Amino acid sequence: MKDHHQLDSALADQAQWLKLYYFARAGFSVAWVAAAFAIGQSSAPVAGALLIAYPAWDAAANWLDALRSGGLSQNRTQALNVLVSLATTVAVILALQVSMNWVLGVFGAWAILSGLLQLGTAIRRWRRFGAQWAMALSGGQSALAGGFFIAQAAMPTAPSITNVAGYAGVGALYFLVSAIWLTVSAWRRGARRAQLG
């Protein structure tokens, strides 16, 4: 009975962490999109800094989530996502020296890889936590968006940071939905326990 209670407590702590994590991811993405539209469109240096910061933040967020969820060795999809996002950060820095078409192509490749890895993480967590359907959809849609980015990058028209901002905005929505879903699920479990106890 004690072991069962400890397991329930550990799962509740992990669900609480995921809720905070998803809210933080949503908040960052909303702030990033707002900055992209408000400043990034008119300032190339700011746009460049934002484009570098986006995959760098993703690497840091995945690293922290993996550490809080048993370590990198137990969360291989996230460990790979950290490496992919760090490599993308470097690739964006280099691509900015060439053109925005190259930058969008890099983002396209990253969206495909990170989306598939996020999908893998969601599937792995599906049995233990709710709200993973939104993360699975987000990962799948990210991979599709990546293909669209690569197609856009091959066109002669130079893209801008707003091309990426739309993608980031959709990602923010998925993280927000996941956070709210976990919040409601926790509230319902607490209400059921109160009725039983």
Which helices and strands, and how do they pair?
Layout: H1 2-40, H2 44-68, H3 76-95, H4 100-125, H5 132-153, H6 161-196
Describe the structure using short key phrases.
about 200 residues; mainly alpha; 6 helices; transmembrane helix
Q: Round the Cα radius of gyration to an integer and report it.
A: 18 Å
H/E element order:
HHHHHH
Mean pLDDT: 89
Distance between the termini: 16 Å
Coarse shape = elongated
Percentage of helical residues? over 70%
Poorly predicted ranges: none
Total domain units: 1
Give the DSSP E fraction (strand runs of 2 or more residues).
Answer: under 5%
Number of helices: 6
DSSP E strands, number = 0
Main sheet attributes: strand count, strand direction, barrel closure: none
Q: Could you say which structural class the secondary elements and strand pairing correspond to? A: mainly alpha
In short:
The chain is built from six helices and no strands. Keywords: Membrane, Transmembrane, Transmembrane helix.
